[in-house]
């Protein structure tokens, strides 16, 4: 989605896409290093579209109470 908008000149959507990618990569780094509390906080801070990209089983394993 974001790459297409970038090519078509929608800078705002392209920037949102880049931020979502960076956020998801940070969450992956937190999980890989065992920083699950940080990962849970970062997941909770995501907007809905980005959080929907996280598989349910990973979300449930990282976010307390799920």
Task: Briefly say what this structure is.
The protein is mostly helical. The chain is built from five helices and no strands.
Describe it for me?
The protein is mostly helical and 66 residues long. The protein has one domain (2-62). Helices cover 74% and strands 0% of the residues. It is built from five helices and no strands. The protein has helices spanning 2-7, 11-32, 36-45, 48-51, 56-62. The chain starts with a helix and ends with a helix. The mean pLDDT is 86.
Low-confidence stretches: none
* Average pLDDT score: 86
Order of helices and strands: HHHHH
Give me the number of helical elements. Answer: 5
* Gross geometry: elongated
Query: How many structural domains can be distinguished in the coordinates?
Result: 1
How large is the share of residues in beta strands? under 5%
Structural class: mainly alpha
- Helix percent reads over 70%
Could you give a short account of the major beta sheet?
none
Quantity of strands, as a count? 0
How far the N terminus sits from the C terminus, by CA atoms, comes to: 29 Å
Radius of gyration: 13 Å
Key words describing this protein structure:
mainly alpha
SSE arrangement:
Layout: H1 2-7, H2 11-32, H3 36-45, H4 48-51, H5 56-62
């Amino acid at each position: 989605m974001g790459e297409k908008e970038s090519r078509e000149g929608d800078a705002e959507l392209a920037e949102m896409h880049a931020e979502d990618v960076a956020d998801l990569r940070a969450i992956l780094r937190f999980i890989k290093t065992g920083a699950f509390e940080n990962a849970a906080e970062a997941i909770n801070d995501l907007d809905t579209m980005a959080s929907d990209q996280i598989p349910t089983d990973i979300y449930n394993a990282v976010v307390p109470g799920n």
